[in-house]
Design a protein that fits this description.
- The protein has 155 residues and is of the alpha+beta class.
- Helix content is 21%, strand content 35%.
- It has three helices and ten strands; from the N terminus they run βββββαββββαβα.
- Strands 1, 2, 3, 4, 5, 6, 7, 8, 9 and 10 form a ten-stranded mixed beta sheet that branches.
- It is globular.
């Protein structure tokens, strides 16, 4: 497929959440949107739906410009568990988008294409501390606590 004269590498429905406009400025519109995305040789564009993407490739959602991918990188956020099949697109200016695909296979396809465009390897990351505190109780104690707390004793 062609979009504005450029080869489209991958396209399809995707959910997007704009987290950061740039370093230090949270995005003003941070809700999840169901959009249609087209990834070409050096940018990604988001549309209301497939029809708009095909018939009016210059009219992107909310009048946005295509997002240039030079210097960008992707990561699979280990600290984001609210939705499955999510990856984060980090832009050089500090802008960040969370993108949700329908499946892990679809997510891997997007990440493979983005990796080949940006030249940056996909990483797994957490914005939270990397170490978790050690658990103090054993599994036996945990199950005993659960039994004592949640079972009704018959007399």
């Amino acid at each position: 497929t062609e979009a504005a004269g450029e080869r489209v590498r991958i396209e399809g429905p995707i959910q997007r959440k704009h987290e950061w406009e740039n370093r230090g400025t949270k995005a003003s519109h941070r809700t999840w949107d169901k959009l249609y995305a087209m990834l070409n040789e050096n940018s990604v564009s988001f549309y209301k739906d497939q029809k708009q993407a095909k018939t009016a490739p210059q009219s992107r959602v909310r009048g946005e410009k295509a997002i240039a991918l030079e210097g960008a990188d992707c990561e699979v956020p280990t600290d984001y568990s609210k939705r499955p099949h999510v990856f984060r697109l980090n832009l050089p200016n500090g802008g960040q988008y969370l993108l949700q695909c329908k499946s892990d296979d679809e997510m891997r396809s997007w990440l493979r294409e983005l990796e080949s465009i940006t030249g940056n390897q996909v990483t797994e990351s957490s914005s939270k501390a990397q170490t978790m505190p050690a658990k103090s109780s054993s599994k036996k104690e945990d199950s005993a606590k659960k039994k004592g707390k949640f079972t009704l004793k018959k007399n």
